[in-house]
Request: fold
Amino acid sequence: MAGDQDNPAQQVSVDPLYLFACGLLWHRRTDADAGWELVRGLKSEDREVRAIARALLAKAQNLRLPAATERAPDVARGEVSGLDRNLSLIEVVRMNTPYGLEIVDSCLHCNLRIESCFCNLSKEMLRSFSAASHQATYPGGALLFVEGQTPRGAYVLCSGKVKLSTTSREGKVLILKIARPGEALGLSAAISGTSYELTAETAGPCQVTFIERDAFIKLLERNGELGLRAAQALSWEFQSAYRDIHELVLGRSSAGKLARLLLSWTSGREDARSEIRVRATLTHEEMAQMIGASRETVTRVLSDLKKKDWIRLDGSVLVIRNRMALEALAA
Reply:
């Protein structure tokens, strides 16, 4: 193993089944030798082997080992043993798994793929799209693009959430949408060549696939399947914008708009007779920006809803106790 560490550029060949066995030893017994074999797999010439190694290493954040109190020894010189060896390996793992997210090396071998326009491309088209794009990981609060900026390309959100907002001349911010995995961002601007209509800011650690505009346009010109998927994505984006405008402009009151926002977090939970628990990821200020109200109004309405016992807050968890009452308020 020391020889491999001395020459990071050395290309190695690793059996995928052997990697899985090493993964079991690493996660169940914290076997440092097995962990270093996974790191060795990251240098394989085989992209699939590299993806497997990264996926197995990505689970390292679930390990619980004592904290190191001294400088980690030099792994390349073989100055590691026991706990120090494990701690040194965990540092390497963390460098390969930023923000605790599973690293995506290729759309073809992505474990995050879901039912969406660009994730459901045919294998050949997915291969072409993957070759023309690249993946990146961002921390929370990162700007992917800004309203009015000349489009560099389009983005597909692989994991995490992204806030899409617009700002008035007076500086008032309105959050139009919280994008979720599988959604395309900046697509209309990339196709038309006009400025981005919105600002896209990550709402936490995110993984994003980016494709430059010129490469994307060439793929669209050559492939009808990608053109159809892009048209479907734009259509859904168009319909979503209409619904948002209708709710924002025609909503009867701020309380009704806020009730509608809270109910939107319960998608897929239709039982109105029991309490519904959802994690509230937005601040009062962000809620206000989503319904076109002030932060003070949101705080007051939430307080009123809690006094009526329609909702309660358990830390960061929102508990909806009376869904039918909220639905009546939102109607």
